[in-house]
Amino acid sequence: MKKKSSYNVAVVGAKGAVGSEMIKILEERKFPVADLRLFGSARSKGTSARFQGRDVPVRELKFEPDEFQGIDIVLSSPGALVSTKFVPHAIKTGAVVIDNTSAFRMHPKVPLVIPEINPEDIKKHKGIIANPNCSAIIMLMAVAPLHRKNPIKRILCSTYQSASGAGAKAMRELETQTRDVLDGKPIKKEVFPHQIAFNLFSHNSTIEENGYNEEELKMIQEAHKILHDDSIRIATTCVRVPVFRAHSEAIYIEFERKMPLEQAHNILSKAPGIKLVDDQKSNHFPMPIEASGGNDVLVGRLRVDLSCKNGLVLFVSGDQLRKGAALNAIQIAEKLIQKN
Catalytic pick from 125, 147, 203, 247? Predict the structure, then answer.
């Protein structure tokens, strides 16, 4: 992709929760868009999305070889199966695809990138760059700056994942179920396998033979790939909670050597994309309600792990639709055109 003053951009999955956020962030960050092309499913055909004061029509994705002719950058979030079908066509036309699905993340020749952590991996792309799992991004934004100063031996992470991680329909299901419970009506389950209103449950992804669910394994595998370090021992427990958007995580870290709290505070206060929210006096720490709609990952509740010689504990919240998905993808695109 040649250096230009502006770029033709396509968004695939434009009417989904992440796709809609991508369109907003392109405009917010004044990304140099020459032409915006939107794609969706057959259900989205005939709809439009607002961008720079005009309505941009959504086209039905048909998986045709010339569908992305003239496009420089594709921002993709349609689901893994759809990505595997259309991405080869897009690459052949000369586009670079930044894919938010799980389809290519663990492919050995596809860079998996968080721009604040491993931007140098972008240059290794062969037409596709993978956007990591939302929970992995939020965890690593807090963990990686500390790891660079003091190598991490072990991470234990429990997530509190919002409905937004399952898409726009899941967010509507949480709202509808909440109203129905309060009105004394029977609830309907369409997206989640269990009631999400006033409840929490193990993440709704496939349980593998080792007892971990798919989401938990993604966090482990992707963390190793992004940090270029398979030696870190990681255990995760992923849980859905009745929150509209923004995931939260409790993270226990064991370092090679002791890390004083003051040093951890200092490192995180200077880390890009991080906002420290750590007011012990008023018991004010990261909350999803304050992370929602924001670009920063909120980090706080820092304390010594009393059960571990070289351990620290912290709590984080980050907007799953923004830094956990759409914003990270657009930051990759920004780095891509800067490096070119």
Answer: 247
Percent of the chain scored above 70 by pLDDT?
99
> How far, CA to CA in Å, does 100 sit from each of 82, 133, 154, 205, 309?
11, 8, 27, 17, 38
CATH class of 7-132+325-339: alpha beta
Q: Which one of the listed residues 134, 157, 203, 238 is annotated catalytic?
A: 134
Question: What local confidence, expressed as pLDDT, does residue 340 receive?
Answer: 66
53 Ramachandran zone, left/alpha/beta (phi>0; psi -120 to 50): left
The amino acid that residue 120 corresponds to is: E
Measured over the CA atoms of residue 207, residue 213, residue 214 and residue 217, the dihedral's sign is negative
- Residues 311-319 have a mean pLDDT of 98
Q: Where are the domains of the chain?
A: 7-132+325-339, 136-320
Could you confirm whether 238 is annotated as catalytic?
no
What fold does the segment set 136-320 form as a domain? Dihydrodipicolinate Reductase; domain 2 (3.30.360)
**Known active-site residue 284:** no
Q: What is the pLDDT of residues 102-118, one digit of tens each?
A: 999 999 999 999 999 99
Vertex 321: Cα angle to 315 and 326 (nearest 5): 120
